[in-house]
Design brief:
single chain, four-stranded antiparallel β-sheet, globular
């Protein structure tokens, strides 16, 4: 299945979990709040604060846990720039 080109916002109440099936290649961004992200068969975990994002690299399940009320987006990591081929976004980024 192809990942969507747009990402829909997902509101997470404090201490709630959002499951991301078939996570490889998906970008998760924390718009508001703070989240913990973990992926199946990956020893690394991330804590993302508002304005930060990460690209999920593993097939299988990923989980986002909200430390406090949070707003996240999950969507395809590939962006289509005007007039050029698709480019991946950096693995972990923070918005200034």
């Amino acid at each position: 299945m192809l990942a969507p080109l747009t990402s829909e916002p997902v509101a997470l109440a404090a201490r709630c979990v959002h499951r991301i099936e078939s996570a490889k290649g998906m970008k998760i961004a924390c718009v508001r709040g703070a989240i913990w992200v973990t992926q199946e068969r990956d020893p690394r975990d991330w804590v993302l604060m508002a304005g930060q994002s990460a690209i999920l690299e593993r097939a299988g399940l990923a989980v986002a846990y909200a430390f406090k009320d949070a707003l996240i987006t999950v969507g395809a990591a590939w962006q289509l720039p005007a007039g050029g081929p698709a480019q991946p976004t950096p693995h972990l980024e923070a918005r200034a």
